[in-house]
Amino acid sequence: MIGASDGKFVLPLAEAGYDVIAIENDPLALCGGEVLLPVSGFAYAPGLVERLKEADLQQRVRIVAEDFLDTEVDGLVSDAVWTSCSWHYSVNHRRPLSEFVTRMQQLVQPGGLCGAEFMMPSDDRHDEIEHYTTPNALASHFGDAWTTLLVLQTAPFLERAHVGQMHDHTHRMGMLMATKHPDGYTKGGPSHDEA
Ligand SMILES: C[S@@+](CC[C@H](N)C(=O)[O-])C[C@H]1O[C@@H](n2cnc3c(N)ncnc32)[C@H](O)[C@@H]1O
Fold this sequence. Notes:
By secondary structure, the protein is an alpha+beta fold. It folds into two domains: 1-66, no CATH class; 74-188, 3-Layer(aba) Sandwich (Rossmann fold), CATH 3.40.50. It has helices at residues 10-15, 27-31, 48-54, 97-106, 135-139; strands at residues 20-23, 33-37, 41-45, 61-64, 78-84, 108-119, 146-153, 157-159, 169-171, 173-180, 185-186, 189-190. A hairpin with a 3-residue loop joins strand 2 (33-37) and strand 3. S-adenosylmethionine binds at residues 3, 5, 8-9, 23-26, 29, 67-69, 84-86, 89, 91-92. S-adenosylmethionine is lined by residues 3, 5, 8-9, 23-26, 29, 67-69, 84-86, 89, 91-92.
């Protein structure tokens, strides 16, 4: 899980019996702390570490508390790699979106699954930032070594105020899921990795 936050996806996966690698570098998401809620003011929010401990799931989850763009990917290769609304964070704008996506792809073992849900442009200022992308633009990063299984996108929708965003706001989201060819071979011959 890339951008695991406080574990919305990590906990159910671990509970279901999967071994999960959680990559996340926000100290609040990892260790918890005080957050400002839109209506009720300040409150304590537990982080991933505490939530895993409470659920007695620490053994199933390896936390990598690093910036994904600087993480050593060797040793983290997995059957499935997922990210939810992470690459549009401004910390990632210093490098091209292709770098984030390529690093994700490198983490997927042959035959494995790569999936992302992501913010699409929903505001004029997003048009300047390639990290607010579209399913079609993202699909162009998945070459012959991949089979695209699913591409979805929503219409613009209203999201209520939440931690970090004190006003109701509009989003538009996309999703893409693809599998890596099992033997690393592409339609045209060996992939670049294998050649
Ligand atoms: C919108 S949250 C989504 C988290 C979780 N999937 C969920 O739905 O609750 C995205 C998370 O990605 C993390 N993130 C973004 N860029 C990252 C990076 N380069 N390295 C590590 N974590 C990153 C952020 O800190 C944030 O916690």
